[in-house]
Amino acid sequence: MADKLRFSQRLEWDRPSNRVARALEARRGAGEPLLDLTESNPTRAGFRYETDAVLAALAREESMLYEPQPAGLRRAREAVSAYYAQRGLAVEPDRILLTASTSEAYGYLFKLFADPGDPAVAPKPSYPLFEFLAALEGVRLLEYRLRYEDRWRVDFASLERALDAGARIALAVTPNNPTGSYLSADEMRRIAELCAAHGAALVIDEVFHDYRIEAGPAPAAGEIEGPVFLLNGLSKILGLPQMKLAWIAALGPGQEEALRRLELIADTYLSVATPVQHALQKWLRLRPGFQAQVTARLRSNLARLQAAVGGSPCDALRVEGGWYAVLRLPQVRAEEDWVLLFLEQDGVLVQPGYFFDFEEEAFAVVSLLTPENVFEEGLQRITSRVAREAG
After folding, report:
1. Of 14, 63, 90, 321, which is most buried by a Cβ count within 10 Å?
2. pTM across the whole model
3. CB neighbours of 155 closer than 8 A, spacing ≥ 6?
4. Where exactly are the structural domains of the chain?
5. Distance (Å, rounded) from C-alpha 181 to C-alpha 113?
6. What single DSSP character describes residue 321?
7. What's the Cα-to-Cα distance from 182 to each of 72, 214, 224, 234, 237, rounded to whole Å?
């Protein structure tokens, strides 16, 4: 009977594992030591959490009462509104809809704006999850390029081509993962203008917004005059991905119908747990302490990276914010060969640029969240290896 089951074509279900994944599995299987420079799970990165306060906020009597609200409990949406107010952005609670994750938020927005087979557009390079999220909704994903000059910049010609091809929804990420680049205020306004001219919805993912590494304030999406949907959540804001709470904030004019329809979608799932909604207000008060720890590590690790590549055959691309950095390697080897060499010979794990759809070689992506001692030792091994191989 099982051999007669017919599966959907939404995903390429039987993707073969790549050489890096196989080499990593073999190394771990053999029990060999590993310096993991890809660690992006904040709960495993050695930060101090106010554990008692986090858990105590869940122990509320109200959590025993089931109160299904499609947009989320009012008190939780008020807490999100207060978070934006602290950033200088006015977002009324009625403009906020809670989800279990930003991935779910993307799914809601794809459902809202795109029919099966319709195109959407996302930046390249960027996080590879977009490909899967779009495919699971039956949406075709087009791409617009980010070009690196002195910083990463939007290639507006490629964005216009995608919008001309009928993209119903445009995704932007600021700061981007993994490039660490914020959209400038001018870039955000230009993207919004193009979306408005083509009748496409604009979604801005700013989950790493609070982690500015360079001096000066981060560009604010609130400067956009047209409608925009902002995504954020606890995974990055508080380093609590296990608590499963995120949101969509609808800014700009004419959003009432979109919010009404989003509530209908959310009412179909009712996926956000009641205890985390009641805890949210108290949790967000913990934000300054946690983010201060993370930002300090990001900046210290970036300084280590810049010092390590100084005078070496590789260099680090500019990072403005977020948790990641990009290392440009000499083209004496293919990108995957570099990554395998670091892993198999030096016991250091990095991610190749092609994981994130870099169009050129050779790049490696590292997490600035990595504990400092691991990061420093891993960089030393990488730069020593590159010097020997490229010298």
Report:
1. 321
2. 0.95
3. 144, 145, 146, 147
4. 18-48+288-390, 51-285
5. 27
6. B
7. 29, 11, 15, 20, 17
Bridge partners, 172 (sequence order):
204
Least confident of 19-23, 44-48, 218-222, 250-254: 218-222
Which of these CATH numbers, 1.10.8.60, 3.40.640.10, 3.20.20.70, 3.40.720.10, describes 51-285?
3.40.640.10
CA nearest neighbour of 385 among 369, 371, 364 = 364
Amino acid at residue number 98 = L
Please name the amino acid found at residue 333.
Answer: R
* The CATH number of domain 18-48+288-390, selected from 3.90.1150.10, 3.30.930.10, 3.30.365.10, 3.30.1330.60: 3.90.1150.10
21 secondary structure, DSSP code: H
Which tokens in the block code for residue 168? 């119903």
Tokens of 270: 């009712």
Which tens digits make up the pLDDT trace of 165-219?
999 999 999 999 999 999 999 999 999 999 999 999 999 999 999 999 998 888 8
Please determine, for residue 225, whether its predicted confidence score (pLDDT) is greater than 90: no
Does 267 have pLDDT greater than 90? yes
Residue 288's CB: how many other CB atoms inside 10 A?
A: 11
Sheet holding 228-233, edge to edge: 96-99, 246-251, 228-233, 201-205, 169-173, 119-124, 140-148, 152-154
Q: Report how far residue 181's alpha carbon sits from residue 185's, in angstroms, rounded to the nearest whole number.
A: 12
- The pLDDT value given to residue 164: 97
In whole angstroms, what is the distance from residue 245 CA to residue 235 CA?
8
Residues in the chain: 391
Quick one: which of 249, 227, 222, 246 has its CA closest to 236? 246
Structure tokens at 154: 């939007």
Residue in the block written with tokens 């995504």? 231
pLDDT for 237 equals 98
- CA pair distance 339, 351, nearest whole angstrom: 7
Give SS3 for 289: helix
CA distance 15 to 285: 43
pLDDT digit string (tens) for 275-302? 999 999 999 999 999 999 999 999 999 9
